[in-house]
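Contributing: when you submit paired examples, paste them exactly as shown. First protein:
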Amino acid sequence: MGRYVCPVAAVMFLLGLAVTSATRGGTMTEVRFMTLDPGHFHAGLVQKEMYPNVARRVHVYAPLGADLTEHLNRIVAFNSRRDSPTAWELEVHAGPDSLQRMLREKPGNVVVLSGRNRGKIDKIKASVEAGLNVLSDKPWIIDPADFPKLESALATAERRGLIAYDIMTERYEITTMLQRELINDKSIFGTMLPGSLAEPSVYMESVHHLFKMVAGMVNRRPAWFFDVEQQGESVPDVGTHLVDLVQWMLYPDASIDYRKDVQVLAAKRWPTVMSREEFQKVTGEPDFPAYLQAHVHDGKLDYYCNGQVSYALRGVHVKLDVLWRYEAPPGTGDTHFAYFKGSRSRVEIRQGKEENYRPELYVVPNDASDRAALAPLLAKKMEQMRKEFPGVSLSDHGGDFRIDIPDKHRVGHEAHFAQVTHKFLQYLKDARAMPAWERPNMLAKYWVTTQALKLGRRQGNDR
């Protein structure tokens, strides 16, 4: 097969992207990205900005099809925007043997992966075994049977001094960062309560929507998105972020051992039922494809995209709900709710009507009589926080304290990908800078998500 497939070259010419030669410049210390099978827009968001010491030429290995074209469109949009345009050059290698060809040619030293979650761990494992660093979006695994492959891939990366990094964007959401600060301040939060299975002391709910309008256009989802065998169910997919946040917030800078510190206690799953018309509206496809027919009943698709898991983390009871609804009510959107219960207060993120459907952070005193004592402590905490987050302040909301966050700190989900990439590049420059807890905590995270799936399926389907 030649280096280029003519249709891709033509598409790139029409879109205004440079179709470069095979010359490989730069030094061995230069970071060179290779994007492999971009099946989700997250791969494109890694390139929303340029980075120091990262080559502008990126090699893309993918089958010729809609996923590749959409990826090219995104990079074009970044290169052609009016404000701070990027200057990426793409060399596209289009063909069905993308992984094998990338490993054979190896024009870069970092593999960027997103989408098509089934088999993603095989690509990651093959990449690190070939001496390549990996920056990949979640989830790395969606099936408990693949957990040993995850252990092997991370062990190989550690042994060979490579960085294999999971794109955990929610660590960079401002309300989450400040929530983490507050629950680790004993003068305000007290000590973490253990809770119980019936009354967990940590609860998170994440609600997403299948049908969305973006910039006046339908945000099309590929038909394979609705195949849980490819995309994964809700807890192994979106739930990865929530499990990561719980351990990152509760035990900062501490390693979690999934064999001793985690007990998955209960889980369940249930579908969002979609009509054929709803499926057509969100995918643009005329009908349910053959690989979804097993989940079609009476002309409607049972899409198992809702899940719940309860588990104990070092004795602290946690409950997570990960939900997908078809369409948000007018004026609303995706939402995140989270609380942590301490002996002195509860710290929670709300995103309801009162918050104009944007996340806001609250501190709720456990005892009304203790409210007056908490006020000056929170005021002092705001002074400390303003050193890193200028402008944060405190306001009274009917007995609850709200942390008011200036808009300049609300950079948005898309910007978080560049923040994660900057952190990855820092670790790439010096592998010793990567915290020792990242690897064991990644294992703990995927142990929870995949064991939740196993337990939920064992308990049967709720329909």
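Second protein:
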Amino acid sequence: MPPNIANIALHGLHLAIVAGAGVGWLFCETRLATLGLQGVIALSWVVIGPLAGKPFGYCLITDLQWRVRRGIGLSERAGGYVKYLLDGASGRDLDAALVDRWTLRAFAASIAANLTLLAVYGWC
């Protein structure tokens, strides 16, 4: 796959993951799949990253995308994918630690919402 297409495909995958984990719990039909996706994300952040010598919050897809971007001559981005999106949308260089804290809070809230709805309404 040509690098530019790989970069675009990774953006699409990233956006689908962020959207799915963030709002997939809103829909009865996707709650169980969303819980699985949230579990994989948590596993990557908490287990895989530290085992691979990476910091908390490590994402294999972000790592791959940054490699692709370097390969096509685009500047490497500091911080995670959410920071990259927010920097691009705001035109500012936001504080990486602040973005990470809010990303973690939003992720935890989406898990809590999903688990609450699953407990109240069942597996649909």
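If you have annotations for the second protein, write them as plain sentences, like these:
The longest helix spans residues 96-121.
Residues 3-121 form one domain.
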